[in-house]
Amino acid sequence: MTDAQALLARSQETLSAIQRMEAALAAGSDDMAAHFHEDFVWRGNRGCGTKHGLAAFRRDWQLPLRAAFHDRVYVTERFLADGEWAACFGHIEATHAGTFMGIAPTGKRVTIPYMDFWRVEDGRIADNPVFVDFASVLHQLGRDVFAGEGWEAFDRGERTPPRP
Predict the structure, then answer these.
(1) Other Cβ atoms closer than 10 A to 92
(2) pLDDT at position 159 over 90
(3) Number of other CB atoms surrounding residue 122 within 10 Å
(4) Contact 42, 53 (CB under 8 A)
(5) How far apart are CA 23 and CA 54, in angstroms?
(6) Dihedral angle computed from the Cα positions of residues 21, 27, 32 and 37, in that order, rounded to the nearest 10 degrees
């Protein structure tokens, strides 16, 4: 087998492990150990935190997300794989049914954009950098974390960007 063929085979194994995990989570499975190493690291962007180990991930991310957002539908737009690493981007469609970032339940249907990266060892996830767009979710719930200073105003021509 050539190096390129070995990389392609490893990439497919990695992608298969991730797709099994995603299917299990979408189905509501709580058997996380089948998909994640017990000591894996989940690394979120600002506002999401870093979770060390499977118990912390479940307690401090998965269960609070489920409590805040019900009727979740996971929409993965694209998967990518390269050796032991895989990634995807997509969003969760959900109903705001529990307190989120201090906002009482609104019943609003929201879209939660995300990008996920995973490093797979022995068929299970060992490392998981994640980027969840909580600023977008908060905006949908009526809170502007940028206090009107978001750069979208440049896109709409409402403000002129400063020049160096």
Answers:
(1) 18
(2) no
(3) 7
(4) no
(5) 18
(6) 0
CATH code, residues 3-155: 3.10.450.50
Residue 158's pLDDT band, with cuts at 50, 70 and 90, is confident
Cβ of 79: how many Cβ atoms within 10 Å?
16
Domain boundaries, the chain: 3-155
0.85 exceeded by the pTM?
yes
Residue ranges of E strands in the chain: 36-44, 50-52, 69-82, 85-96, 109-121, 124-132
What 3-state class would DSSP assign to 60?
Answer: helix
> What CA–CA distance (Å, rounded) separates 117 from 24?
17
43 and 128 Cβ atoms separated by less than 8 Å: yes
